Automatic annotation (TrEMBL):
<dbReference type="InterPro" id="IPR036179">
    <property type="entry name" value="Ig-like_dom_sf"/>
</dbReference>
<dbReference type="GO" id="GO:0005886">
    <property type="term" value="C:plasma membrane"/>
</dbReference>
<protein>
    <recommendedName>
        <fullName>Ig-like domain-containing protein</fullName>
    </recommendedName>
</protein>
<feature type="signal peptide">
    <location>
        <begin position="1"/>
        <end position="18"/>
    </location>
</feature>
<dbReference type="Pfam" id="PF07686">
    <property type="entry name" value="V-set"/>
</dbReference>
<dbReference type="GO" id="GO:0007166">
    <property type="term" value="P:cell surface receptor signaling pathway"/>
</dbReference>
<keyword id="KW-0732">Signal</keyword>
<dbReference type="InterPro" id="IPR050413">
    <property type="entry name" value="TCR_beta_variable"/>
</dbReference>
<dbReference type="GO" id="GO:0002376">
    <property type="term" value="P:immune system process"/>
</dbReference>
<dbReference type="InterPro" id="IPR013783">
    <property type="entry name" value="Ig-like_fold"/>
</dbReference>
<feature type="domain" description="Ig-like">
    <location>
        <begin position="21"/>
        <end position="122"/>
    </location>
</feature>
<dbReference type="InterPro" id="IPR007110">
    <property type="entry name" value="Ig-like_dom"/>
</dbReference>
<dbReference type="InterPro" id="IPR013106">
    <property type="entry name" value="Ig_V-set"/>
</dbReference>
<keyword id="KW-0391">Immunity</keyword>
Amino acid sequence: MCLGLLCCVALFIWGAGSMDTEVTQSPSHLVKGKGQKAKMDCVPIKGHINVYWYRRKLEEAFEFLVYFQKQDIVKGTEVFKERFSAECHQNSPCSLEINSTEAVDAALYFCASSQSTVLRVSSS
C-alpha cells in the first residue's frame, strides 16, 4: 500500500515562452500516483518538422526517448517502446504519455524541435 508521496511520481516539464519562437510544453509539472497515465504536450517552433523528447533523471544525463519527423516516429528507444506512447499531428501539440507511471519515471521531460536534422555518417 502506498503512503503519501512515497508512491507518487513527480514529472517536471521544461517550459518555454512564445509559441512562434520557442518550444512550448505543458503542463509545467505533474504529480501522479503509481500506475496512472501521465500526458505531456509540446508545441514545436513554427515551421519545424522534427520533434524530439528527452528525459533527465536527478543527477543523470539527458536520455533520448523518441524522434518524430512530421507526424511519423523515426526512432524510439526500447524504454520508449516498452512504457511510453507518443503522437505528433499536424497543427496540434505533440504528446508524450507514460502508460503506467512508476517511481523510476520521476524526471525532467524535455521537448525540442528543429527544421532539419543532421545525418551522421560513420567512416569505416
